[in-house]
Amino acid sequence: MIITTTNTVDGRPVQEYLGVINAQSIIGANIFKDFLGGLRDVFGGRSKTYERVLEEAKEDALRELSQKAQAMGANGILGVDLDFETVGGSGSMLMVIATGTAVRL
Q1: 3-state DSSP call for residue 1?
Q2: Dihedrals φ, ψ of 27, to 5°?
Q3: pLDDT (tens digit, 9 = 90+) per residue, 48-93?
Q4: Which pLDDT belongs to residue 24?
C-alpha cells in the first residue's frame, strides 16, 4: 500500500479513484504520563512520553486507513492529512484523524 501526502505518485498514474476514507485513533494519557509531561513543562525539554503516545496514535490511524483502503480494492492512498486533537473533559485523551483518497494505481 502506497500512502502519501501528495496528490500523485511519480510514474504511477491513478487508474481509479475509490473515494475519501478516514480513520481515527484515540489514546488516553494516564496520570503517570500526565505527571511526567508536567515535569517537562516545568523544567523544559521534550516530553518523550507524549511523543511516543502521539506516534502510536498516528501509526494506529494509518494502519486502520490502510485496512479500509485495502477492503475497497485500493493499492494507494493519496493526499493523506493527519490532524491531532485533545479530547475529553480535561483534554486527557489524544486523538489522531487520518484522511485520504483511496485509489487504484
Answers
A1: coil
A2: -125, 130
A3: 667 777 888 899 999 999 999 999 999 999 999 999 887 776 666 7
A4: 94
| Residue for grid cell 486533537 | 85
- Cβ atoms of 21 and 77 closer than 8 Å: yes
Q: Which three cell numbers stand for residue 13?
A: 498514474
**pLDDT reported for residue 45:** 57
Q: What is the number of alpha carbons within 13 Å of residue 94 lying toward its C-beta?
A: 20
Domains of the chain: residue spans and CATH: 2-104 (3.30.110.70)
Position 87 scores a pLDDT of 77
Alpha carbons 78 and 58: distance in angstroms, whole number: 16
* H or E element, residue 48: helix 48-71
